[in-house]
Request: fold
Amino acid sequence: MDLRQLRYFYTIAKEGQITRAANKLHMAQPPLSTSLKELETELGVSLFERNRKKMELTEPGLLLYEKAEKLFEYLDETVMEVKETGDGLRGTLSIGCVKTCFSHMPKRLKTFRTQYPNITYELMEGDSYFLADQLMNRSIDLALVRLPLEMKDFEYVPLPDENYVVVIPNSWAEDFSTGKITMANLVKLPLLLLHRLSGIGQYEVILDKFHKNNLQPKVVCQCPDVDILLELVREGLGASIVPTSALTDHQLNGIKKLMIEDENIVSKSAIIWLKNRYLSKSARQFIELFHA
Reply:
């Protein structure tokens, strides 16, 4: 078995069909089928259960696929490390970012672009749980996320803490002329809260603050997208509680911001990356911007 055969097998397993794998590898189908048969003969096992629609991995095939995946990840990182022994930074930096953390990005990206003009970028948006999963799959290099998050697999640099604020539609502004609101008054309002697709996050942090004050909030809507929530607030559907940095001047159009008078709800966030993975020079240099 050589790396070429292993790469062919791995691609077939990922694509689920010989035809799609051949297209992916830019080669004809017959030699790909021949390579797979030779590999199965050499190993003395069947690697796939074949049917008309899709090729399913057998138990030996699944084991080989998992080993091959780790091997190719290691090889790709080795190639990157060797290439980076030269001068200068180049290549692509893949960054995930929770939408409510994006205010940390533009100035740093501008600075980084000035310093390293040969770097290109791939940006991905999603909630913290989704981006952590993308890091685990090595689909992205870094991610800016809201905490809490299970951190045992990640290294991180914390970002500055920030307070949560309440946002209400402008049509309610006369009732809150002081620019403040108490927790007791907050539970009287219909609330629209950010909620991750999976895992424990800001939603649970906010509810815990209410429960510690023996209050039961009236949550009428949960949504993972802050822009959608703010639009619903603007239309008068309810109030929301969001991190301060989630509010740009544009987003405050039609919305009034209120400080919580008798409770301090703090949002924590961080830039994170996968432990025990080789980070490119560009990723390491980008992280340095968050130490300042």
In short: The chain has a mean pLDDT of 90. The CA atoms of residues 69 and 182 lie 53 Å apart. The chain has three domains: 3-83, 91-160+269-288, 163-266. The first strand starts at residue 48 and ends at 50.
